[in-house]
Write a structure and sequence with these properties.
membrane, transmembrane, transmembrane helix
Length: about 110
């Protein structure tokens, strides 16, 4: 029981750390830094797709559903990280526009 608790704590720490890292990278001036983690998670999802074993006797519909469900489920972190990225970038864009308006008001 103690090992399970420690593992759960480490997984939660990794998830929270990843989210804070994504927020930090998304707020950088260069837009490319914020795309690092989503790219890594997307490439990992492709790795999961390529490592699927298809057995003899599986129908094409089963194979398609296996690939589609694996792709969708493995891209949940990618979608979350891209949501954080676009949210941070939009906030930065609005802040930049407000700063420009304030500068124009001062002139």
């Amino acid at each position: 029981m103690k090992n399970v608790t420690i593992m759960l704590f480490l997984v939660m720490l990794l998830l929270v750390g990843g989210i804070f890292l994504q927020i930090f990278l998304s707020k950088k001036k260069s837009k490319w830094f914020g795309l690092i983690l989503p790219t890594i998670t997307f490439l990992y999802s492709l790795l999961m797709i390529f490592s699927i074993a298809v057995f003899e006797g599986m129908k094409s519909g089963e194979i398609f559903m296996l690939f589609a469900s694996t792709f969708l489920i493995s891209n949940i972190p990618t979608i979350v990280l891209l949501g954080i990225y676009f949210g941070c970038r939009e906030k930065m864009k609005l802040r930049s526009q407000l700063d420009k308006m304030n500068i124009q008001d001062l002139e």
